[in-house]
Amino acid sequence: MCCLFGVSTSGFCDWLYRPMSQHERGNAQLVQAIKHRHEASDGTYGSPRIVRDLMDAGFACSENRLARLMKIAGIKARHQRRRPPGAA
Q1: Does residue 16 form part of some domain?
Q2: Is 70 contained in some domain?
Q3: What totals of helices (H) and strands (E) does the chain contain, helices first?
Q4: Which of 41, 57, 79, 85 pairs with 30 at a CA distance of 20 to 30 A?
């Protein structure tokens, strides 16, 4: 497989067994916090609201990073049902 991609076997093994970087660890922590906030909102919070919650909690992240992580993790905001017009 290494010949197919044009990389050395030692380089592939180095990449395969490399420990997680600090950025990847931060992403993993963010995904856990995102899941927690998303479940607490009954699945209605999207990236703008979650990023505000996380910034208030002390996390440093942008809305674009958060949206990318949510998309990778399969977390989507659910629209709240609106009541029909005229219903009380």
Answers
A1: no
A2: yes
A3: 5, 0
A4: 79
